[in-house]
What we know:
The chain folds into two domains: 2-75 and 255-340 and 440-490, FAD/NAD(P)-binding domain; 107-170 and 204-252 and 342-436. The chain is built from 14 helices and 20 strands. It has helices spanning 2-6, 14-29, 45-58, 98-106, 136-147, 149-165, 167-173, 181-196, 201-207, 212-227, 235-242, 258-266, 414-420, 466-484; strands spanning 9-10, 36-41, 62-67, 78-81, 84-87, 120-123, 128-131, 270-272, 276-281, 290-294, 306-310, 312-315, 327-329, 342-354, 370-373, 383-387, 403-408, 421-436, 448-450, 453-455. Helix 9 (201-207) crosses helix 11. Residues 1-28 have low confidence and may be disordered. Bound molecules: flavin-adenine dinucleotide and 2-acetamido-2-deoxy-beta-D-glucopyranose (4 copies). One 2-acetamido-2-deoxy-beta-D-glucopyranose binds at residues 322, 324-325.
Amino acid sequence: MASTMGKVVFVAPLCLVISRFMYNAHAKSVQPEPSIRIGIIGGGIGGSSCSYFLHELFGAKASIDVYEPSDIGGRIATVDIGGHTYESGASIIHPGNMYMKKFTKEFGLKHKDKIPGQKMGFYDGEKFVFLESDWVIATYAKMLWHYGWDLIKFRREIGVFVEKFSRIYDSQKKGVAYSSVEGIMNTIGGNEVVDYTKVPFLKALKDRGYKDVIIDEMMAIATRVNYGQSVNMSAFAGFVSVAGIQGGLFSVHGGNNQVCSQLLQKSRANIIKSTIKGVKLDTESATPGYYLTIAANENSNSTFHTSERYDIIVIATPLHEGKSNISFEGFPKKITNFPGRFHRTVATFVDGELNTASFGFKNMSGCPNQILTTKDNQFKINSIAHNLPIDCKVGNKESQKPVWKVFSKEPLSEKQLYALFASRKEMKVVDWLAYPHYDPQNSLPKFELHDQLYYINGIEWAASAIEMLIVGSRNTALLAYNKYNGLNDMIDVDFNQKTEL
Ligand SMILES: Cc1cc2nc3c(=O)[nH]c(=O)nc-3n(C[C@H](O)[C@H](O)[C@H](O)COP(=O)(O)OP(=O)(O)OC[C@H]3O[C@@H](n4cnc5c(N)ncnc54)[C@H](O)[C@@H]3O)c2cc1C
Ligand SMILES: *[C@@H]1O[C@H](CO)[C@@H](O)[C@H](O)[C@H]1NC(C)=O
Ligand SMILES: *[C@@H]1O[C@H](CO)[C@@H](O)[C@H](O)[C@H]1NC(C)=O
Ligand SMILES: *[C@@H]1O[C@H](CO)[C@@H](O)[C@H](O)[C@H]1NC(C)=O
Ligand SMILES: *[C@@H]1O[C@H](CO)[C@@H](O)[C@H](O)[C@H]1NC(C)=O
């Protein structure tokens, strides 16, 4: 992974000179001089896909700089342990995620092989309330017996939700952009879906008549494992977290973050390995413009900050709670105060053996290796599960070496680790400021902070997931393009009223 990135990663501040030079050399041979400068802050899936969509829309007219001080991919990342590499952040992609499916195919990437031998168990802190069988049919029958009609009803409901979600693809294909996250929610499903972001998941489920057993187990697990939260979180994020019930989930063979580096490469972006400290409004120019304050490279002792002017700025990182520390200067109306907080999720990887006795088993025979918890428990974990390497292959035993991955709200103490593991050869901890706390009281941020200054991650406040950020980034690219070209009739089109577009 690092080797493919090496080619495109420069070191600031030299990079500014080099990248300009390279761009011009290319431009002279075929394309007109770029006349629009675009700066993107953050090289996660949001920033990298936005760069791709902006390049698609503006073509050679625009030159794009992407600022990313760390690894490309952001919260899509890997960890090395026990001689193999594993996903440490976002790992699962839903088959209804059209953009991720399209990118994977377009870039010639493969889906990671599915290796049998995963056995799931729902653990309530004392016992397993549900245990997967060795046969799929038996598992389904068992689930039906346990959850009854609610299971069928819920699978159907998720199917409808996923289908509704796909309406946003149609509207984006037509070039429509929304200035707010609410506009996107409205396109997906009118007021009903807008309301999903404002009511607790629990209430939405109760209103639909679901019984406690499915809520307390399956729904609680989905919200705990995916978002470290509970059914008290907002219903939209709840539905997103349970969408996996449909099956067909996948990961990218060789690591999901390859999609990010490919997107940046295809968009011909200059990747600048620096932190942005601030955004300053250019008050002298007649057309919109901003100066980015670029931090001196962390690896040098220089405290020299540089500044670059751009016509369009995209912020592709959360602006909450010490997540990015970007200051805004010179704006007539202060840009500040993004309310809400982020959840901490600690991913602990252990190459070792589970202490099966803690879960009531003599050994691994019969013991689930995907233990998902329904509520807070003595181990203080959300889940503990076998994870397979990013490049595991059917028929290659060595490539299938699993390690345990534990999700918890806090780092695990030695005492907790002792209770969970019989032995530990190696351990790695990845500490994430992971996703928003989905309080149904939250208001949803706008995509446009100022004229041609955009913020993708507002969409995370509906739900944080790879595909959500890509939807947000395409919307941002369309918004910038439509505004730049005065295509105001392509902004905030209400598809629930006007469908003839
Ligand atoms: C543990 C975990 C598991 C998850 N599992 C899944 C999953 O299975 N499926 C799924 O779809 N989603 C999952 N998610 C959610 C998903 O990872 C995120 O929604 C998505 O990756 C966010 O992408 P982003 O580009 O918006 O932000 P990030 O990936 O956070 O990217 C922002 C980037 O901006 C950079 N940056 C920050 N400040 C500055 C600055 N001042 N200047 C320049 N650069 C800056 C950062 O270094 C970072 O690389 C998971 C998240 C976590 C944490
Ligand atoms: C959800 O909220 C209710 C009331 O606000 C509270 O009693 C309950 O404990 C909460 N549930 C969880 C799982 O946090
Ligand atoms: C920075 O300064 C310290 C002490 O003055 C020195 O040890 C270190 O090598 C310097 N680092 C770089 C990258 O120049
Ligand atoms: C932001 O600033 C806070 C406090 O100054 C600091 O603790 C935090 O590490 C910073 N975050 C980033 C991403 O730089
Ligand atoms: C595992 O435990 C079961 C009983 O629960 C026992 O029958 C079996 O022999 C054990 N296997 C090993 C490899 O110890």
